[in-house]
Design brief:
The structure is a single chain. The chain is 31% helix and 25% strand. The protein contains seven helices and nine strands; from the N terminus they run βαβαββββαβαβαβαα. Strands 1, 2, 3, 4, 5, 6, 7, 8 and 9 form a nine-stranded mixed sheet that branches. Helix 1 crosses helix 6 and helix 1 runs antiparallel to helix 7.
Length: 266
């Protein structure tokens, strides 16, 4: 006798959920030209281009840096930029493989102010220094604060601190700058051009896009960003973005149109 075995049909495959193709990302509003209040900026262009190279569109939500950082720490949004390694206890943040840019963190003094220091050891104890709420700073800044050499007074932006500095309301300000976001550019943006100068450099910072793996999209988004960043670096697009913004800074500084982006660069 032949016995015919009837095999049960396999269950239908569970449909695979397509990957997210639009991501919501928070960005700082007051770090011109890295990131601006209107959603443009050098770092913004890099983030958009890297995700675009990975086939993803990003919606940038522009906000003060402290809120941007807090939202990603609380896993309320996929990512925030531009973030540097935080020296405080663990925040749950994982940074991109490579930084968006590097900068120096420097103490800045008023040309007419009472503090004329070229090194930290020359600061009078209790020197009041303007810092930005939520910003990361080099270890040297935190060491000076812990020792009592300086007292940090926080504001929403570096521009606000530079105006307070010139008005004599603080002794020094800390400004993060590099060859794109120059101190000359930042001080002109604050309306205090020629009235401030660098005192001494506290240290260097690398700034990244930061993710929190507690957010459902972040691990995937970080992998996609890293992939896209490698693509635009090898294709020459990253260099083109940098060149465009370098040209803008040079033109804007020369012509005095600091708050404007040259037409066609959006």
């Amino acid at each position: 006798m032949t016995v015919v075995m009837m095999l049960a049909a396999p269950p239908p495959a569970t449909p695979q959920r397509p990957p997210v193709r639009t991501l919501d990302i928070a960005v700082e509003d007051a770090a011109d030209p890295w990131s601006r209040a209107d959603g443009s900026g050098y770092a913004n262009d890099i983030v958009r281009a890297a995700f675009r190279a990975a086939g993803i569109t990003v919606r940038l939500h522009v906000m003060p840096y402290a809120r941007c950082k807090g939202m990603v720490i609380d896993a309320k949004i996929t990512a925030c930029f531009s973030m540097s390694p935080d020296l405080r206890p663990a925040t749950g943040i994982t940074l991109s493989d490579k930084p968006l840019f590097e900068c120096m963190s420097a103490f800045v003094m008023s040309r007419n102010g009472r503090i004329k220091a070229t090194r930290a050891s020359e600061l009078p104890r209790g020197t009041v220094v303007g810092a930005v709420l939520g910003y990361e700073y080099p270890a040297a800044v935190r060491d000076l604060e812990r020792s009592g050499a300086i007292t940090l007074q926080y504001a929403a932006s570096e521009q606000t601190n530079l105006r307070k500095l010139v008005a004599g309301r603080i002794d020094l300000a800390i400004v993060n700058y590099n060859e794109l976001k120059t101190l000359e550019y930042v001080s002109a943006n604050a309306g205090v051009a020629t009235k401030v100068q660098a005192a001494f450099v506290a240290g260097m910072l690398k700034s990244y896009i930061g993710f929190n793996d507690a957010h459902s999209q972040s691990a995937w988004a970080r992998a996609q960003f890293n992939k896209g960043a490698a693509i635009i670096a090898s294709s020459g697009e990253l260099a083109a973005i940098r060149g465009s913004w370098s040209d803008h800074i040079r033109i804007a500084t020369r012509t005095g149109t600091i708050a404007e982006k040259v037409e066609g660069d959006q």
